[in-house]
Q: What sequence folds into this?
């Protein structure tokens, strides 16, 4: 059941709402903090809007309706994690897009399919990186507002979007935004996304670029909201902050809308699982889907392609064994040449064979050397 509240009517000179008074009265700020998120957002925007009316920059605001193009499917304020996941099963969200398109390194079309057709779990496995990202969002929001002031010379406040948004003509197109604001210069609605990543992914974010899977996610949000651009604020390894602006790309949007429609009608609506893609998530989903065995059950597989799969598995295992042996032999040649040296420079390659010591704790203490071979970036 939707928990939307009526949008606040605002006219020049109208009396302030009770919630807005709580913002302005310092001794009532604690009461304001206890308000539901949706009501706080409306009160804050009313305050900003009345300020702009008084400055003569606006004549009249009929209602506060953030990003009016998109339908507010459900208010997320107060929803449990399980309820939120249940609403997400009604369509495809931004975090699903890269998986549906087959370019997410951590997920697959099969994983998305399973998340849409299976009962929402009572408890989910802990996902520490995701939890950390959510925890750091308020910090990134403050950093972004400061960046906006320094780089665009304008003050603004990023507001939360306490709704799951839905495209008005494409009900399976959903979006959960990190934030939004009305651009102080143009008045256009603008969306904001916050991301965190580790230092090992630095190259994917260098020189204003970003990973393809995030680019598709943002294009999906721009489609659902009919907004022109998104500010992506990101934190790398908790020591580097930056912002990149992503403009709306109609060609990419057309492609992903088509992909999502095909995925939904071909697999989700018909409850036919897409083929596994060999990634870890597909393995995990198959293990979940078929975790119970019918003891003694036997089936006859007549399709010849599965005979071919069996033969290829046997061949691949043999090749893997041969490759592993070749790999070990080449490492041994390098070790023989290295001797007692810790570092070796070999043309474009840097070789390290360092001593690793493990102190006794839960396992017996040990000492060994770890061989690593990588392209030499620093030269001799």
A:
């Amino acid at each position: 059941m939707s928990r939307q509240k009526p949008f606040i009517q605002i006219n020049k000179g109208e009396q302030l709402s009770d919630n807005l008074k709580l913002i302005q009265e310092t001794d009532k700020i604690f009461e304001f903090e206890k308000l539901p998120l949706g009501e706080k957002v409306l009160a804050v925007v009313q305050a900003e809007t009345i300020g702009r009316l008084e400055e003569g920059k606006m004549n009249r605001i009929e209602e506060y309706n953030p990003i009016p193009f998109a339908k507010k499917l459900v208010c997320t304020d107060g929803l449990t994690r399980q309820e939120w996941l249940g609403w997400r099963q009604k369509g495809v969200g931004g975090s699903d897009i890269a998986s549906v398109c087959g370019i997410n390194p951590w997920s697959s079309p099969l994983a998305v399919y399973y998340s849409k057709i299976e009962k929402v779990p009572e408890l989910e496995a802990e996902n520490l990186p995701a939890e950390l990202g959510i925890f750091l969002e308020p910090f990134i929001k403050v950093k972004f507002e400061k960046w906006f002031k320094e780089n665009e010379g304008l003050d603004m406040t990023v507001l939360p979007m306490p709704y799951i948004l839905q495209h008005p003509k494409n009900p399976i197109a959903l979006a959960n935004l990190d934030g939004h604001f009305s651009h102080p210069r143009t008045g256009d609605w603008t969306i904001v996304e916050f991301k965190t990543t580790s230092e090992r992914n630095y190259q994917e974010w260098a020189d204003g670029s970003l990973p393809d899977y995030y680019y598709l996610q943002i294009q999906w949000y721009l489609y659902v909201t009919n907004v022109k651009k998104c500010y992506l604020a990101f934190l790398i390894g908790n020591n580097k902050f930056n912002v990149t602006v992503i403009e709306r790309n109609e060609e990419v949007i057309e492609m992903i809308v088509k992909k999502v429609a095909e995925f939904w009608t071909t697999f989700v609506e018909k409850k036919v699982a897409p083929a596994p893609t060999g990634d870890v998530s597909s393995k995990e989903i198959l293990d979940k889907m078929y975790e119970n065995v019918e003891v003694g059950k036997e089936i006859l597989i007549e399709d010849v392609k599965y005979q071919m799969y069996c033969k290829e598995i046997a061949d691949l295992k043999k090749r893997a064994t041969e490759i592993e042996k070749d790999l070990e032999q080449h490492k041994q040649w390098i070790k023989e040449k290295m001797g007692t040296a810790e570092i070796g420079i070999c043309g474009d390659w840097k070789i390290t064979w360092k001593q690793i010591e493990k102190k006794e704790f839960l396992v017996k203490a040990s000492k060994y050397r770890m061989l690593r071979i990588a392209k030499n970036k620093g030269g001799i």
Residues 1-17, 19-30, 48-63 have pLDDT under 50 and may be disordered.
